[in-house]
Amino acid sequence: MQWPFATWGADVVVSGHDHTYERISANRITYFVNGLGGRSIYTFNDPVPGSQVRYNGDYGAMLVEADKTSIHFEFINLSGSVVDAYTIHSTSINPLH
Question: For the whole model, what pTM was predicted?
Answer without folding.
Answer: 0.87
